[in-house]
User: Fold this.
Amino acid sequence: MVGPGQVMVSDVVAESVAVHGFWTRSRKSGLVYLIVGLFAAVVFGLATKAGETATFTLSTKPGGAGLDLPARAFAIGFGLVCALTGAALLAGYFRRHFGATTAVAIVSFVLSFLCWQVAGNDLPLVGLAQQTLFLAVPLILGSLAGVLGERSGVINVAIEGQLLTGAFCGALFGSIAASAWVGLVAAAIGGGLIGAILAVLAIRYLVDQVVLGVVLNVFAMGVTGYLYDRFMQPNTQAYNNPPTFPAIHIPLLADIPVIGPVLFQNTIITYLAIVLVVVVSLALTKTRWGLRTRAVGEHPTAADTLGIRVRLVRYRNVIMGGLIAGIGGAALTVGSVGQFGKDMSNGRGFIALAALIFGRWSPTGALLGALLFGFADALQSNLSSLNSVVPSQFLTMLPYIATILAVAGLVGKVRAPAADGKPYVKS
Amino acid sequence: MSSDEERPGGGPADPDGGAPGTGTETATAPAKRSGPRAAVPGDAKRTRTGIVIDALTTANTFTVTVLAIVLALAVGAVVIALSDQAVLDSMKYFFARPGDTFAAAGHAIGTAYAALFTGSIVDPETLNEAWWGMTSWSSVLSPISETLTYAAPLIGTGLAVALAFRAGMFNIGAQGQAMMGAIGAGLVGFMVPWPPVIGVIAALLGGLVGGGLWGLLAGWLKAKFGAHEVITTIMLNYIAAPSFVTWLVTQHGVQQPGRNDPISKAVEPNAQLPHLFGSGLRANLAIILVVGAALVVSWLLRRSTLGFEFRAVGSNPNAARTAGISLNRTYLLVMLFAGVLAGLGGASIVLGNTPNAITPSVVGSIGFDGITVALLGRGRPVGTVLAGLLFGALQAGAGQMQVTSQVPIEVSTIIQSLIVIFVAAPALVRAIFRLRAQRVGALGQNLAKGWNG
Assistant:
């Protein structure tokens, strides 16, 4: 029988070998990319019929300008690129540029897959990009809400509930007032209310924040579902028929080919989301508010010593986050189809949470994470319409699998703000 | 702010002279591996007397739980009243005749909660008729049977969440694990023409394996890559249902012949769970199975070395690792067991309730409800069984409530989530009812860990 002490020593040794030995993180990842890349080159390459072309259209009109690629060659080619980056990592190169190399590997793998799927068909790239941004908007706003709360030390798992409440309030009050703007404001307030409940219970009553977030999601689901059945369903015309925001064409910029239709022909909520990312990003690093937020999130006791009112900062941030997530919910109703449906947030709040972790708790990182998941979602719906051989149900798994892969270590060891999830109690 | 300052953690040391630190649990580093008995405080008699005296006036576990339920039902009553058409109509002339509003509200709440009771416990009218021989006794048992039928899967998933809580993990994946359990049980149940008894056992095992593997996957992702289980289990939920199950049940050989909607073949009668009170009532063997599972989990956590390790990891992973407990092994085993328990919950639906087939929505929301059940049960097996029975009764009653007074079934979801919020915020309940401060450990605290573990 081995004593506890010996076990500990051998554990430490094993760990240090794992950290400093041959199999570093980049080597392990390299091996994975190598295998996956070769798999792509062989399987996607062989599955593609020789002589077929994959068309990636750049124009918004059908039959417009586009790229015609020989599908088979490019499927194999991109697979080999992925394998090559893996081999380079395995050989010890590019260790400093692990992130960029990983990006190249993933992108080339996805392109290889696309060449196979699109062979003999065409994929509208501009439409894909438009959809990506459109689907990412609730995720961007949701993860931004998470950034605000968690940088100040309050974990927000209730993003899902805030999105749902926002979507509900947007549809309900937008219909009653027959104005999308009223819907937008009501959505923000609805999300803010859930944020306020979260704040009071987490900060004042010290409830476990992860548990609280999950239960608040159930609560939001119950309340919106109840009111939907009671009022919206029997009287759709009066309570669930809000006007929607039109796409705003920004003059001149909207006419730029490719970029114009993607970036400058969106609804007000999309512009708002992008502006908010920039504002929060700058504010976190450049303003007094940002410094205080980060101080409270990393070391509340030190912040308190300097006279910062820890709880006040947290209250403000969590409620502000709720307002933003509520706007994200509005993107699902008044920013999109208009009508509310039960559980229409459908896990987006949790994906926003993953985007937040993926983006390492920074607004720009969260934006990139949200766009990645938006892309997985957009790709899924585009490929389903191409009559892919992969069953559509497996394609709908794409965003979720992407999330698992992202959280399982493509981004390495992430570190949350030090005081994240810990209530502050003055001693 | 005064109520926050009395919170334990910085409180006085355990009077029993136990190791310093958290007093109530076996939180200390297991330096002596002499078994769980070493963790039990020595002076049991004093503690017991103390609890009896304090019980009535202090915010202890029992009073807070009862008051949380009362509060939640009160809020639920307000929701029912405010959404009632008669109440809303009479509100238009509230200042002229306020009595009308209160009468309408009283009527709405009264009929709704009466239906909640008659749908889940016993209907006095039926009882009276049965007493005089005008109806059969089985119709008296019908509400109880419904409650047990709803409760059984909830207890299964509740145990899955509770066990993970005790090891410091938050298993939000009971939903997906239950779905995979339902799939495993269903597939085994209709693929083979089973003989009696063996069929039930085989199908149940299929369910346990299906749920267990899905749980193990999340445990592996945590042990191997450090992926936080909250995120991975949520994603695994969405992968299992609706994506995977919809694909599966529309495959040839799985889909029920003659159907175009996603539904599998029905489970062989020999693989179905036997009914408890005759074929007229829905209650089946599932409730006995899950109570048995709760006893096993209870034994595991209290009496076995493995359970001791689980709790040690849950209390303080660093201390547990220092004492030679493998964290990775614990993560794998806990999630495996949790998946098995949730799988039992899912299997019990497919094998116990009509139409005995796999559909994308067959498990309902038992996984998410399991979280609330485990929280109300405070991560303890017995508490989970009681909480499961309560929520089972709520759901059975909500069905009756929807039939008799058109109150949407979601009211039970609202009440459930409120109960858990109040239970998790004892300081709030204390403040509302002006109870004396609690002396025992915090309720519902520190069950789940943040992103930094």
